[in-house]
Fold this protein.
Amino acid sequence: MEAYRDQYATIFNNGRGIVLVGISADADTTLEAWAREKSFPMLFASDTGGLVGSLYGAYDPARRIEDRSLYVIDPAGKVAYTARPFRALSAASYKELEDALDRIAPLPADTTN
């Protein structure tokens, strides 16, 4: 998740009207302490029972963990982009994500000209 944090300003343009939520099977108290300590600019949700992860096929009940899937939801509430798994240490993954975000939630045109 640190890679997301480090890429946040560039890819998400410090928000760009997008809400980024990391979902984990970890307890909410664990996620809260970790997110605060690491200064994450995104939200985290606890899915200790794997309910949300199971709905998206991202939860492994044998190991009780969520995989590293990434889903981008468009303004209409539909899944517009999926990366399964998202390779957080790969520059190509971030380029693909940035390209998808440009299609889904384009940055406003530069009006300073």
About this structure: The mean pLDDT is 83. The helical segments are 2-11, 28-38, 51-55, 91-104. The longest helix spans residues 91-104. The first strand starts at residue 21 and ends at 24.
